[in-house]
């Protein structure tokens, strides 16, 4: 990672311990992934951290979409919306930035 005080991460860059997460850590991970975090990103990141605390797991894409729809509304509870924020694999990328483990069914 970017500095010696950065928390331990897995080979794929996920935090080993989600309690090591901070806004600064999230911003560093996002920078490495070429994502500029906006308020829309933070809304999803905070939601993911809530999901993890509630269900003790990182959501796969389908669960993430449903949770976003439930909490953020119809417009934000869509795959296309999440893909615009977190290109490639939204559940995987957003979980990484949120300091959560990689979702179980993500490659």
Can I get a quick summary?
The protein is mainly alpha-helical. The protein has five helices and no strands. The protein has one domain: Orthogonal Bundle (Arc Repressor Mutant, subunit A).
Would you write up a description of this structure?
This protein is an all-alpha fold. The chain has a single domain (18-97), classed as DsrC protein, C-terminal domain (Arc Repressor Mutant, subunit A, Orthogonal Bundle). Helix content is 50%, strand content 0%. The protein contains five helices and no strands. The chain has helices at residues 23-32, 39-55, 61-72, 79-85, 90-97. Helix 2 crosses helix 3 (61-72). The longest helix is centred in the middle third of the chain and has 17 residues, at 39-55. The two termini are 21 Å apart.
- Note the main sheet: none
Poorly predicted segments: none
Counted by DSSP, the helix tally is: 5
Instruction: Calculate Rg over CA atoms.
Output: 13 Å
Tally of distinct domains? 1
Instruction: Note the beta-strand portion.
Output: under 5%
Query: Would you tell me the overall average pLDDT?
Result: 92
In CATH, the homologous superfamily goes by the name DsrC protein, C-terminal domain
- The arrangement of helices and strands along the chain is HHHHH
CATH class: Mainly Alpha
Helix/sheet category: mainly alpha
Question: How far apart are the termini?
Answer: 21 Å
Question: Would you count the extended β strands for me?
Answer: 0
> Looking at the structure, what is the overall shape?
globular
Give the % helix: 40-55%
The CATH architecture designation is Orthogonal Bundle
Q: What would the CATH topology be? A: Arc Repressor Mutant, subunit A
